[in-house]
Amino acid sequence: MSTPNTPDNNHQTTYTPPKVWSNDKENGGKFASTNSPTAGARHEQSLPVGDAPLQLYSLNTPNGIKINILLEELAELGLQGAKYDAYKIDISEGDQFGSDFVAINPNSKIPALVDYTDKSAPISIFESGAIALYLAEKFEKFVPLEQGRARAECLSWLMWQMGSAPYLGGGFGHFYAYAPEPMEYPINRFTMETKRQLDVLDRHLASNDYLCGNGDSAYNIADMVIWAWYGRLVLGELYDAAEFLQVDDYTHVQRWAKNIANRAAVKRALTLELSPIS
Q1: Overall domain count for the chain
Q2: Which Gene3D superfamilies does UniProt cross-reference here (predicted)?
Q3: Is position 213 within any domain?
Q4: Looking at residue 249, what DSSP letter applies?
Q5: CATH number at residue 171
Q6: Fewer CB atoms inside 10 Å of the end CB: C or N, the chain?
Q7: Are 56 and 85 in contact (CB under 8 A)?
Q8: CA-CA distance, 100 to 9, in Å (whole number)?
């Protein structure tokens, strides 16, 4: 039998958690230098504010791309009130812990958005799902507004993404691509869940063009936020994991993902130029 924190016969280590956790060692991984068990600003940093009604502070990660897509879809409709300036929050450099950004988003995650339509009372919004819903309702586009089946379905899939993507990004993506060393148990655990989620989507999309129905009018914010993660995953654009996850097996997700990828607004969203904040 192996003893705590020593190799066993399979060259793996076991770990016995202490009675009280302490942050007393390097946790490793790609973002180790910015990880901390505490919140709040770590340095003073002013954020630029442009002339457009909407100010986006983000990064072109899956979470950031969600809002890029919606803003570009609104731009495609020619909505003047949806014009925006976009600024880069470099999470690898700790920009998310600057004082101005933390004032907008106390959780220090991208994206964050400020609506200056009423300059005397700007509105700050954080969490990508909240931003997507806020913008869709503000402009009455890409979300059913009336209570009923269509709205309930859209919000259900929107919340599905918010609850599911952490298993894909923070779970599978972290342990498969970013952890300091490969670990069989977490990779297997989160691969199982990622494939289950892809199967959920594939079964649903077998009888639906989009998440909430058929025809171009069914395309809405649920598709946008889910595509930024799962669409790009099956198209081989996340974690270099397409072969590992056998993404070609999810034929209905593939069809949906390719259809959305061909939209002009989505193409622009993927390459959106973000201005530096300093």
Answers
A1: 1
A2: 1.20.1050.10, Glutaredoxin
A3: yes
A4: G
A5: 1.20.1050.10
A6: N
A7: yes
A8: 52
